[in-house]
Every structure is written in C-alpha cells, then in structure tokens.
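Dear colleagues,

As part of the handover before I leave the project, I'm documenting each prediction I ran so the next person doesn't have to rerun anything. This entry is a single chain, and its sequence is reproduced below.
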Amino acid sequence: MLNLYATLCELAGLEVPDGLDSRSLASLLKGAETDWDNEVVSQFHQNHVMIKQDALKYQYYGAEIPEVLFDLKRDPKEAVNVADDADYAQAMQAFRQRLAALGHGPEADPNYRNAGY
C-alpha cells in the first residue's frame, strides 16, 4: 500500500513529490528490468514490524516480546520460529540491521526518512 501513491502518480503522468516514503511500482507493472529487491515491509501499531525477504519472514513486536523468524520455504505454515537457530544467525543480524535502518528496534536510526530509496 505504501507504494500505491507514487505508482498512481507515475501512471497518471504526475510528478511524484520528493521525500515520500513511497516508491513507484510502475516499472514492475510494465515488466521492465529494475533494481527492486525481493523485500516486503509492513508496520502495524506503533512498533510492530514485519520484514520479508525471499523465503525468510522476520517479525519484531517491541522490546518485551521475542523476535520471530520463519523460513517459509521449509515451514510455509509458520509453525517453527528459527530466530535462535544458529543456522539463521547471519539472517537475524541482517534483519536487525534493516529494522534499525527503518527507524525501529533498540538500535533504531533516529534519522530514518524513507526506507532507503
């Protein structure tokens, strides 16, 4: 949903305002080669964040609730939390860094502006 505004602006031939936390999907809709990665980010409530990259889905619910990581390729029903599994330690570190870059979590970037676009 976040990218809907920028996408509609571009499709309508309107200038996309600077500083939006939004990125146009128009090139993807047209089948063009792009530099888009396979990431989905959603936020609900004030500090609940989900980041999905390829088959891994990370969820952060705030400091009092443990982080969750699912490997959707191995576990499509999200039944096994692999956040503490040593095989996923590198992925957890990367998700924590991305969470911080998005302005959330204990290491949140206070200068967050627009998802790194």
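The chain has two domains: 1-36, 37-106. Residues 1-36 form one domain.

All the best with the project,
I.
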